[in-house]
Amino acid sequence: MSQLAHEVALALTGSGSPSPGPEARQLVAHVLGIDVSVLMTVDDVTDEQRARVEELVARRAAGEPLQHLTGVAYFRYEELAVGPGVFIPRPETEEMVGWALGQLAARPAGSRRVVELCAGSGAITAAISSELGGCDLHAVELSADAWPYLERNLAGRSVDLRLGDMADAFRDLDGTVDLVIANPPYIPTGHRAFLPTDVVEHDPELALFSGADGLDAIRTVAAVARRLLCAGGLVVTEHDESHAAGVRAVLASAGLSEAATHPDLAGRDRFTSAVIGWDA
Ligand SMILES: C[S@@+](CC[C@H](N)C(=O)[O-])C[C@H]1O[C@@H](n2cnc3c(N)ncnc32)[C@H](O)[C@@H]1O
Question: PROSITE patterns attached here (predicted)?
């Protein structure tokens, strides 16, 4: 099978794929219905399988995300169902989740009530649910197109899921939440023309854009966090690397303190946290 994966990798290289080798192995393994780790143990493919691989390579070369072709996205230790209508989770978000897990782990079980705003595929909540025990997990998503993926990815994990606008969500939890976490839309609407075509064409509009300065959804995240958090509770939100100062100002003006921006492994300012003081 190394020969077919090699041919696919060459075809993807010519079409500008950023990682042709791994993508080729995932596409071929997907068509054969096997795990990538056993790809090299398969000797032959049928004509139908080869034709299917060629069809997927053509779609990938035309700009469809690999994750839409295989129906799967990987996030930390999770394998998530994705497809058209739901945002494909990105590696940048994994670091914010790692930070949040560290904060939650430092709290006693029983003080780990978490609300995720803008849940999309459920990647963040799924990772928290797998990696730390004793959490009471809640998540909200507005998009009816994303909802089936969220339900599927969090099935059997005892997560309270709600379909609706985060602005009005979880009023029953006001003042009781230990951590509010969000990867909201944050691209200024005027930046559409600067985005890669595959992002504009294949990620949902609602997941990307958020007003003229890109901060509309983060203003809502701040206001909702202010309402939901208990004394000493934390909010953390992902944002564009150029928005760190603006996000800290938004959090402060919502009545949250100690706003701090955290760099990713490349040193880019990608998420900011704040707390609600004991006297707030
Ligand atoms: C950038 S995506 C992030 C999805 C997921 N949390 C992740 O990290 O992969 C933002 C998500 O926010 C959702 N969204 C946008 N506005 C919302 C709102 N007012 N209330 C709830 N969800 C919203 C979008 O539909 C989209 O699924």
Answer: N6_MTASE
Q: In a 3-state reduction of DSSP, which class is residue 262?
A: strand
Structure confidence by residue, pLDDT tens digits, 119-158: 999 999 999 999 999 999 999 999 999 999 999 999 999 9
> If you measure from the C-alpha of residue 163 to the centroid of ligand 1, how many angstroms do you get, rounded to a whole number?
11
> CA 209: distance to chain centroid?
15
What's the 219 CA to ligand 1 centre distance in angstroms? 14
Q: Tens digits of per-residue pLDDT, 157-183? A: 999 999 999 999 999 999 999 999 999
User: For residues 118 and 115, what is the distance between their CA atoms, to the nearest angstrom?
Assistant: 10
* Mutation test residue for ligand 1: of 67, 74, 87, the one with most atoms within 8 Å of CB: 87
CA of 262 to the centre of ligand 1 (A): 21
What are the residue ranges spanned by the domains of the chain?
Answer: 2-62, 85-275
pLDDT band with cut points at 50, 70 and 90 for residue 1: low
Contact 71, 50 (CB under 8 A): no
Domain with residues 85-275, CATH architecture: 3-Layer(aba) Sandwich (3.40)
